[in-house]
Amino acid sequence: MGSLTDQVAIVTGGAQGIGGATSRRLAESGAKVLIADMDAETAEANAERIRNAGGVAEVIETNVSRRDDIEAMVRRAVELWGHLNILVNNAFNTTEPDGSAVDLSEEAWDYAMNVLVKSMFLGAKFAVPEIEKTGKGSIINISSVHGLLMAPKKLVYEAGKSSVIGVTRQMAIDFGPMGIRVNAICPGHIVTERIEEHWKQNPSLLRFFEAQYPVRRVGRPIDIANAINFLCSDEASFITGHALAVDGGLTIQLQEDFGVNQARFFKEHPDTDVSSY
Questions:
Q1: Which of 111, 157, 213, 277 does the annotation list as catalytic?
Q2: How far apart are CA 139 and CA 120, in angstroms?
């Protein structure tokens, strides 16, 4: 896909998972990548992997719930390479439980919304003036299929990921005249390094998940990274304000047929263990 030679990219949460694969994919296309992550050690390992493959990458320890950290990561990218072209707002990490409006704590709501939504507002606040100087660029905000369809007891995650889509559309309108395109990605279930071990311990549940997808598999981080790489490239120069579902067809299914198919799956695979989900 399109070359990103001489472009400078920031990937938040770029140490591993979707962010890790995205950092490597953008570097493979020629971009210089600043990996912004709370886990500096894992981020450095990913940066070294990029360098060993012939790419250019550096690391900055970043907590995207903090305004000063976001401002510092943008400043660092410009200090390193003189300009900025791409911002991938991917980071999200919380150990706080989700729930309904009744049982979700106010502290969990505030923290999650800071990371899910406010971080993208602040990322644009500091990145857009630098991207504008280059004449064109791209911002990618990571939403989710949870921004398109709701699940029980997931108030703050569904609200946050839905908000990401709205923020993306508004930014596309505001920054399009500057030559800056803004798009969102809505991943389906992606098997990251952290989730891999869980599936190894319960292969029957993974088989159940795979059966829910028309393509009969769940996603891998590279699936999302490839989509991001395309949206950042000149091949996508007429695409902005779009929320791209990269979900193996999960969200296009008629729900009543989907339910029947799942009932059929359990009849054919009675050993499936869903107790850990």
A1: 157
A2: 10
Is the torsion defined by CA of 61, 65, 67, 68 positive or negative? negative
CATH for 8-194+218-252 is 3.40.50.720
Handedness of CA 223, 226, 232, 233 (dihedral sign): negative
- pLDDT (tens digit, 9 = 90+) per residue, 16-72? 999 999 999 999 999 999 999 999 999 999 999 999 999 999 999 999 999 999 999
Q: Is 277 annotated in the active site?
A: no
> Is the separation of the CB atoms in 9 and 26 below 8 Å?
yes
pLDDT (tens digit, 9 = 90+) per residue, 81-135? 999 999 999 998 766 678 999 999 999 999 999 999 999 999 999 999 999 999 9
Which residue type sits at 261?
Answer: N
Axis crossing angle, helix 193-201 with helix 17-28, rounded to the nearest 10: 130
